[in-house]
């Protein structure tokens, strides 16, 4: 498929349509929005063989991985469909009038979350389904009641166009407004859309430099808009002394499987592992057999990986523990690098993400050294502990890691982010540009909603979820 | 009191203390944090006569107004104290492990909101209690579990210092960490604090240019932080035809009382009123007697008001309907200006905020003209309708106004913002820089919290609110 960049004229039509569609969609009852999300999921499922084969062609990812990802994508749509039908996400708060309120008579106040308006989503390269045209950001924004414009990732243009066409066909069978989801192509169109007054929020998954550039554009607008960027993360893993002794091989094998999964192209790839000296860990890491991995997504990812890997590997305090380079020049060099916690304390840039199948292992002598290193760690999506329940270091470790990461794991690997009610995929910068939010899980919908309170508005003029007669949606009344 | 600007050395000590205090405060049980907030309220109440007399001296506001404001400030602290003791604000979500989760086995995931870290609060001039040292932003940030640094407003330095000292004395009697609340003075110290790595979020109430400049600094940091700015708002009022005929004098009198209250120095002052032609409204507005008002807060506000008032009054499409200038040259000229909806459609800048006792009334011929004008209105804190329940225009008017304002009022005036569970004080830019949040009401606490999910963490290592045994805090389990 030959897909041209979106022209300025076409973009203008896209923006106008998005504005109209968003207004209409916001007024569409939740039950119908819910049904439309289900219809999209069915549309994608029905075409799954076609979608997966296009994705294999364009992304070099494996069929098994892509099928799982498509399942996740459809599951996510259906979960949001249920979630909005149920309605507690509206966070309805009703304070009835109270003449005896201690700060003076209180008016009747009723608060609800309304759709924020057209949302621009920048698709990622590494999840051609789950973080692309119909990925998590799009699902959350649509569920919230907004039209969506997706800036397609150049890594999978045909898949992007095909997905969008399937969605449009599915939505045509529902009560959804026309052009509710639209796709634009090209960097220029993406930047222009981000600057357009019609766009009220934007979401992004990708690299730190790319995300930061777009964040800066969003904030420099005459009318700035929320920009939800999920950028980069090293996802450090911390192995305690007891665990290092009790479960050496299990931990090493799990680590290698996790950091090489999808050729290491996962935002939650565990890129750094801290382990105690004088345990069998070092030898086990040095002698582990690295698996063969598949090619990286595209040449830009390839060169980025190579540069990141080299810059850390060539540091004076880093040695290459083991690497695997298969005969095909097209496959990346799977690499395990090694350094010490004292080196990290002086050179925190050693912790920078290497997007691909490489990781750095860090030897620490003492708990004090470990905690010193932690103070050097930037914001992270995840931090994982492999430990034993009764070790004295553990409570403080959990406490410290909850200060730098959005998700803290115990004896599990961070790859494979489940879509659930309680999931949190976020973290302090540079993990994300919006540390108070999540981009995976049901709470992701909050990013695309804005609160409005109605004061003294008669019952028949209120949105029905705010009325006294509402029984389906949970209302917090007078704080209870 | 002679108060010098905070030096760079002193600021450095403030930042170090804030970091330490924040860590300690975050670990302080909610019951003790709650008790400390109550103790602050008691400390302020006990000193209320002193505080009010200093405030009268420094702000020119009336004693009655200041006493009400101090009551509100203490009430707000006590309400947050109750709110955090109850704990539902933690938004606890528990998803137990589920091997049959449709997208693949689900791990045990438990999500909670944790304190974001030290918060910098820029105090406002117009509310020397409620939006200053111990105002809403500070109360919300402390309640959330963060240390606070307040950049004092130069309009009331002695009051700022006195308030901070009272708070410190009150906190010394509790288990709160040392230097939990600190005050810095001077523009340079404020900017440096905003750029400091120790500061994790900032809040501001003030003018559009001032707030925008700080917003830009917060976003330009190597590690950007959330900036919650409440800037400016014209708070338009819409009088329907039926209301204009039925309640002319009531509406005009209420309008004048509301826009001249506190000499018009309120962020929710109704600065613009739309009314239908061919009703008694015009004559009632032209002949209304404007009340005498007191001096504005300071010379900077005085010159700003004068410039804003003149720039609109001198526009070719604007006439001065009535004005009052009292003998004292120090009092502002209370002013009612008049224009038409068609003029607004061409010149939306006529709707810019005049911070002081002036308002613009706008005549509209038809409903269509009114809706055209609404499309020109920027983001607002509030929008008010004076109408009759059965008028056909009303549902669409509510719908449109909920799209541009954070609070929509029916037959009430927007001044006097009650602190309640459902209050919403926010809105699209330029009303605020963070349209998904509020700066008044219990939901204001959300701005200073960040979510963390714990995966597969054993019961005894979890924060107690996430444990299965927790009975005091509401948990959403498996989405229910």
Automatic annotation (TrEMBL), chains A, B:
Domain Aldehyde dehydrogenase, first and last residues per copy: 3-274
Stored InterPro entries: Ald_DH/histidinol_DH, Ald_DH_C, Ald_DH_N, Aldehyde_DH_dom, Aldehyde_DH_Superfamily
Statement: the UniProt record of this protein carries the keyword Oxidoreductase: yes
UniProt keyword annotations, A-Z: Oxidoreductase
UniProt xrefs under PANTHER family: ALDEHYDE DEHYDROGENASE-RELATED (PTHR43353:SF3), SUCCINATE-SEMIALDEHYDE DEHYDROGENASE, MITOCHONDRIAL (PTHR43353)
Protein's UniProt name: Aldehyde dehydrogenase family protein
Protein source organism: Rhodococcus sovatensis
């Amino acid at each position: 498929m030959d897909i041209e960049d979106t022209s300025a004229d076409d973009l203008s039509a896209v923006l106008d349509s998005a504005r109209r569609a968003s207004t209409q969609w916001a007024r569409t009852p939740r039950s119908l929005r819910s049904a439309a999300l289900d219809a999209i999921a069915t549309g994608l499922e029905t075409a799954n063989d076609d979608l997966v084969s296009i994705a294999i062609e364009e992304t070099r990812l494996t069929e098994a991985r892509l099928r799982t990802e498509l399942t996740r994508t459809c599951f996510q749509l259906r979960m949001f469909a249920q979630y909005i039908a149920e309605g507690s996400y509206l966070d309805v708060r009703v304070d009835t009038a109270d003449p005896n309120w201690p700060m003076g008579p209180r008016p009747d106040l009723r608060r609800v979350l309304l759709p924020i308006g057209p949302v621009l989503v920048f698709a990622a390269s590494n999840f051609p389904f789950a973080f692309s045209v119909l990925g998590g950001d799009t699902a959350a924004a649509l569920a919230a009641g907004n039209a969506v414009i997706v800036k397609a990732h150049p890594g999978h243009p045909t898949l992007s166009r095909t997905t969008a066409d399937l969605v449009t066909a599915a939505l045509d069978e529902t009560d959804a407004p026309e052009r509710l989801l639209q796709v634009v192509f090209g960097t220029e169109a993406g930047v222009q859309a981000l600057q357009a007054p019609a766009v009220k929020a934007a979401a992004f998954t990708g690299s730190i430099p790319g995300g930061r550039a777009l964040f800066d554009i969003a904030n420099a607008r005459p009318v700035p808009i929320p920009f939800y960027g999920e950028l980069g993360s090293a996802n450090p893993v911390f192995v305690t002394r007891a665990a290092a002794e009790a479960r050496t091989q299990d931990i090493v094998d799990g680590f290698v499987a996790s950091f090489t999964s999808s050729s290491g192209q996962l935002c939650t790839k565990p890129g750094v592992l801290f382990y105690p000296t004088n345990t069998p860990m070092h030898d086990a890491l040095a002698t582990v057999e690295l698996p063969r991995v598949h090619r990286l997504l595209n040449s830009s990812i390839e060169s980025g990986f190579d540069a990141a890997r080299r810059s850390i590997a060539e540091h004076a305090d880093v040695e290459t523990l083991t690497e695997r380079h298969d005969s095909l020049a097209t496959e990346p060099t799977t690499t395990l690098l090694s350094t010490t916690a004292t080196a990290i304390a002086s050179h925190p840039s050693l912790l920078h993400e290497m997007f691909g199948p490489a990781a750095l292992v860090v030897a620490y002598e003492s708990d004090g050294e470990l905690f010193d290193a932690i103070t050097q760690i930037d914001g992270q999506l995840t931090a994982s502990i492999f430990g034993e329940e009764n070790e004295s270091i553990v409570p403080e470790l959990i406490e410290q890691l909850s200060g730098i990461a959005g998700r803290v794991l115990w004896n599990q690997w961070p790859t494979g982010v489940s879509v659930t009610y309680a999931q949190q995929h976020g973290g302090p910068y540079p993990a994300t540009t919006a540390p108070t939010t999540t981009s995976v899980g049901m709470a992701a919908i909050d990013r695309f909603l804005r609160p409005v309170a109605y004061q003294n508005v008669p019952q028949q003029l209120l949105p029905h979820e705010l009325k006294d007669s509402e029984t389906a949606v949970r209302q917090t009344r007078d704080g209870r």
